[in-house]
Amino acid sequence: MKQGNAIEVKNLTKKFKVFFDKGSQLKERILFRNRNRYEERWVLNGVSFEVKKGEAIGLIGHNGCGKSTTLKLLSKIIYPDTGSIEMKGRVSSLIELGAGFHPDMSGRENVYTNASIFGLSKKEIDLRFDDIVAFSELEEFIDNPVRTYSSGMYMRLAFSVAINVNAEILLIDEILAVGDSNFQAKCFNRLREIKAHGTTIVIVSHSLSQIEQICDRTIWLQDGLIAEEGVPRDIHPKYLNYMGEQRQVIAEKEAERQKEKVDDSKGTKISHETVEKEKIDKEKNRWGNGNARIREIVMLNSKMEEQHVFATGDDMILKLEYNVKENVKDAVFGIGIFRGDGLQCYGTNTRIDKQDEFDLSESGMLQLNLKNIGLLPAEYIVDIAIESEIGVPVDYFKVATSFEVYSNIDDVGVVRIAHEWNFSEVK
């Protein structure tokens, strides 16, 4: 190994057999041999990286990209098909917490059993036992059988054992949401302390903010290879942009599927009835006198491309076409944006914005430009309404369309408010 390195991974490859319909019993496997067909799926296809002593790195990527597989290879739970892994120092893995726990044994007995799996002698466990129990905050339950523990208590004890092993290398897989918020903060503080003492840390997490708080470097895995690596603040925006594009592709496929569903309904009575039912259900969400009717709704990005997935801070364009049957005097157009749980996040209309009064006498099109949307990550629905002069409903359309917002922002609430912190000394 190179001097100063704790981990060296070279040309790592790993494939798995994915069976289409594998029999679970010997009889089934003999009688239905054709069912034992499988395909080989390459999860890692030549991954190489190095981690210096005391460095913390984060592994990110979409589900199935090989993050957890990489961590299991590092911890020697599984072995690579080709390539090599060199590690220097005692390793502690927070991958499957409590994997060595026995439900009928007490918490005390499980601490000794689990810690011995990590390579500690009885004398070492004796020295660390009080610290483990104190960190878990389970003093009054430590002699109770683990089967009587809640899932949170179980995870807290397992986490406490793993981080008190005093390992040189710590491997962590999606387990930083342990216990309540106070205990999570405690875990983060301990990880910072561990890192400050020179422990090498490798974290797999979908929470980019967790990685940014702890890690010096991010490795983005994609299609069995390293797509990007570098400082988290540089890599994460690229990753989020990619994931946003993928979600947009999924949204487009779903829209196409719904269109095909409508087209196919012309061929069969069953699907036709289904589509008609969906139309009726949708019509229940709108009401009004029908003098004007919203016909088509399209959501666009700043490049005028149809899109239903946006990042916090993006511009959004709502474009709609409407038909007019009878003149609508002093018309008012309005929108309401609601989070998926029904919480109203924003609403406005042309009267609130003091637009000049106008009548609807002919069919037309409306474009509403929403600048720098500060909504935090969630799914949102949009209501659209047309009223006449004295608030008479013309076309109230609930759940007219929907969109999704993503980002790596961890602010809480509904919207992101631009802000900065300034400190000064008081004399």
UniProtKB/TrEMBL annotation:
**Can you supply one Gene Ontology CC term for this chain's record?**
membrane
Task: Provide the alphabetized UniProt keywords.
Answer: ATP-binding, Nucleotide-binding, Transport
The yes or no answer to whether the keyword Transport is present is yes
Q: Which residues form the signal peptide?
A: none
Q: Which InterPro entries match?
A: AAA+_ATPase, ABC_transporter-like_ATP-bd, ABC_transpr_TagH-like, Bact_Polysacc_Export_ATP-bd, P-loop_NTPase, Wzt_C
Question: Which one Pfam family would you cite for this protein?
Answer: Wzt_C
GO MF annotations in UniProt: ABC-type transporter activity; ATP binding; ATP hydrolysis activity
Question: Which domain of life, per UniProt?
Answer: Bacteria
Which segments constitute the ABC transporter domain?
Answer: 26-248
**Which PANTHER family would you find in this protein's record?**
TEICHOIC ACIDS EXPORT ATP-BINDING PROTEIN TAGH
> What family is this?
Belongs to the ABC transporter superfamily.
The protein depicted here goes by the name ABC-2 type transport system ATP-binding protein
In its UniProt entry, the species of origin is given as [Clostridium] fimetarium
The organism's lineage is: Bacteria, Bacillati, Bacillota, Clostridia, Lachnospirales
